[in-house]
């Protein structure tokens, strides 16, 4: 059998946040991963492929408890071989993925989420015991039963109104404080993820800008480079770089000092 490949890069509407992706993995395989970087072992990907194509994945070769990069590389090779059987053409940068860096693993997981969801018809969800298949709760898993795979909903956390805070008894107050602290932690985690995503895509745009600047004097690329530069520097109303740039823009609007006042200030 063959699989359906997913396009790359993904369209904006097909992407998920870091927390949503981790939640998707945990719900699918009964794991309790806390960050995208834990996908670097490749084991979770192999098991998700085994869930859809059990005859194509030699699951006994997958090292779920491995702690070394050499063993992780073996897992990724199992994934590559499975892709070949499924006739899926996808570059798998193993040497970068096993380093556990966020950006590389985040990109690959974004693609794999799309790939998995378009190939999953839901039939394997009720019969697949992820914990039993891997021989126990490897990877920090819990023994929760697996529910059908679905796109994780986007959660918008908001602080509870003060009127809802119970003030009758110290135990109730302590519980409410812990709940609010949990909400703050979740929000901070979400913000951290958004900042990483922002920096990641900004660095790519900066690389494109540098390449364009290097080709600006080449007549063969003049029109092409000009079109890209126009897109990079385009702004929208209420969202754009400060006019006149940097510190000069920050000083705009400050009272002007005439020559006489300047001379008086210099005396001091």
Summed up, what is this model?
The chain is mostly helical and 268 residues long. The chain is built from ten helices and no strands. The relative contact order is 0.11.
Radius of gyration from the alpha-carbon trace, in angstroms: 26 Å
Topology order in helix (H) and strand (E) letters? HHHHHHHHHH
Shape descriptor reads globular
Q: Supply the helix-strand structural class.
A: mainly alpha
Number of helices: 10
How does the major sheet shape up? none
Strand content: under 5%
Q: How far apart are the first and last residues' alpha carbons, in Å?
A: 84 Å
| Low-pLDDT residue spans | 139-160, 162-167, 241-257, 261-268
Helical content stands at 40-55%
Looking at how many chains there are and whether they match, the oligomeric state comes to single chain
The averaged pLDDT comes out at 77
State the total count of DSSP E strands: 0
Structural overview:
Helix 2 runs parallel beside helix 3. The protein is globular, with a radius of gyration of 26 Å. The N and C termini lie far apart (84 Å). With 268 residues, it is an all-alpha fold. Helices cover 51% and strands 0% of the residues. The relative contact order is 0.11. It is built from 10 helices and no strands. The longest helix has 46 residues.
Please give the structural blueprint.
Blueprint: H1 18-29, H2 43-52, H3 69-85, H4 94-97, H5 102-119, H6 130-133, H7 170-215, H8 222-233, H9 246-251, H10 259-267
